[in-house]
Design a protein that fits this description.
By secondary structure, the protein is mostly helical. It has helices at about 5-10, 15-25, 30-35, 40-50, 55-70.
Length: about 80
């Protein structure tokens, strides 16, 4: 099984953002929809919007990516 990567996530950013929002409901999708942020900026945004430390936000994002892999997420059909 191949794990989803940050590159996979950004290849289909609009679909990924919708899926991310289901897990992280406080995301500012208007701000993020314009273009995929780099990973560090998304982690900072998650931390700010969900009252997490950056370390916690990074871990939550990694866990979400892993969960998407387990659900059979693919770059094209995230």
């Amino acid at each position: 099984m191949r794990h989803l990567t940050w590159h996979d996530l950004t290849r289909n950013w609009s679909r990924a953002l919708d899926t991310l929002r289901a897990r992280f409901p406080n995301l500012d999708t208007e701000r993020l929809r314009r273009q995929p942020p780099d990973r560090a900026r998304l982690v900072a945004h998650l931390a700010e919007r969900h009252d997490l430390t950056r370390r916690e936000a990074r871990r939550e994002l990694d866990d979400w990516l892993f969960a998407q892999t387990l659900r059979g997420g693919t770059p094209a059909g995230l």
